[in-house]
Specification:
The structure holds two protein chains of two kinds. Chain A has eight helices and no strands. Chain A is 64% helix and 0% strand. Chain A starts with a helix and ends with a helix. By secondary structure, chain B is an all-alpha fold. In chain B, 70% of the residues lie in helices and 0% in strands. Classes of the chains: A mainly alpha, B mainly alpha. The complex binds zinc ion (ZN). The site of zinc ion has 7 residues of chain A, from helix 4.
């Protein structure tokens, strides 16, 4: 791995990743921002992190498809302070078919509207993922001397 | 949910108000299910584990203190419950759930409506990312989910997973690096075909 043999480069990946998350203190944040403006390799690496983050938000959002809260409320009311923590296995598959079907329809309607609502936001997000396609694997700033000097002279 | 409204519900649930607890379940049920589904890769199991987590939360509710984030506390219960099952399945070290009994390579998600051509590439990217995620070790997958989907702060993630904030920072960076490498590997495979 190049990360181990290259001279120590700042910011390292954990710092870039924390910068993305807004978890650095103000001083560190300013240093990273200045470095990103001057170092194309780190900027590219950071763009990958941003694209990954955007990609996650475009993943399909699974949904229960029914109201578990109502089921739990029923169970707690039926067996107060005893049934907890050991649910019957496959409890949901024992429901009458009609209830299952109604739940599926309701879920379908809900998912349909969620998809429509989500479309507009999804396209730019997924375009962001293409960052990966145009960059060679492992295009990581490995600590070029020029990068390091810029950082250390600040 | 506004924190104040949530605190009110928790206080009422702690005092024995079943409907307040039901409202809390309703607020978190899909998010908790989504998290667990991405960990187990199996919808039926995820449904069981989601219910089990809420029932455990109900039992332990008296011990919750306002100093803790309720969301972290709830996700910690789900994390423990799910990892117990994965350990029993002896799959925690497996790279891919496709090799685990009961695990699926990619959780079953509802099919989206038919897509126009220009969206095909986007759909492929999403599918590849989903596959990438399922191939990551559980430890990396769950920290990515907590950060990217739940948008938890590092201190909340630390509380949820019972690790130091410094560990959150380094583990998250490793997980992101592995996810990017995994995604690039899969797109490389596609190009080679
Ligand atoms: Zn650099």
């Amino acid at each position: 791995m190049t990360e181990h043999t290259a001279p120590k480069h700042t910011p390292d990946l954990p710092t870039l990743s924390a910068y993305l998350d807004g978890e650095l203190d103000h001083h560190a944040e300013q240093r990273v921002a200045a470095h990103l403006a001057a170092c194309p390799l780190c900027a590219a690496r950071f763009a990958e992190l941003q694209a990954l983050s955007a990609g996650f938000k475009a993943l399909p959002m699974a949904s229960l498809g029914f109201d578990l809260a109502g089921v739990i409320e029923g169970r707690l009311a039926a067996a107060p302070r005893s049934a907890a923590a050991r649910p019957e296995r496959r409890w949901f598959s024992q429901w009458p078919l009609a209830i299952g079907a109604a739940a599926s329809i309701a879920a379908g309607v809900f998912m349909g509207s969620a998809l429509v609502a989500g479309r507009a936001a999804e396209v730019p997000r997924m375009a962001a993922l293409r960052v990966f396609d145009i960059m060679p694997p492992g295009s990581l700033c490995i600590g070029l001397e020029s990068c390091y000097r810029k950082e250390s002279t600040q | 949910m506004v924190d104040e409204a949530e605190s009110g519900l928790i206080a009422r649930a702690q005092a024995g108000d079943q409907r307040a607890f039901t409202a809390l379940v309703r607020h978190y049920q899909d998010r908790l299910f989504r998290f667990i589904l991405r960990l187990t890769g199996n919808r039926d199991e995820a449904l069981d584990l989601t219910q089990e987590s809420f029932l455990k939360a109900h039992q332990a509710l008296a011990r919750w203190r306002p100093e803790a984030s309720f969301r972290s506390w709830l996700f910690r219960i789900a994390h423990n419950t799910t990892l117990d099952l994965l350990r029993r399945r002896a799959c925690i070290e497996f790279v891919s759930f496709a090799e685990c009994p009961g695990g699926e390579a990619e959780p079953a998600f509802p099919d989206a409506a038919p897509q126009p051509d220009q969206r095909l590439a986007d759909r492929q990217s999403v599918e590849l990312l989903g596959r990438t995620l399922q191939q990551l070790p559980v430890e990396q997958r769950e920290i990515l989910l907590l950060r990217e989907l739940e948008e938890m702060s590092y201190s909340e993630i630390a509380a949820t997973l019972g690790i130091a904030e410094g560990t959150v920072k380094s583990r998250l960076a490793r997980a992101r690096s592995a996810a990017i490498a995994g995604y690039q590997g899969l797109t490389g495979e596609l190009r080679d075909d």
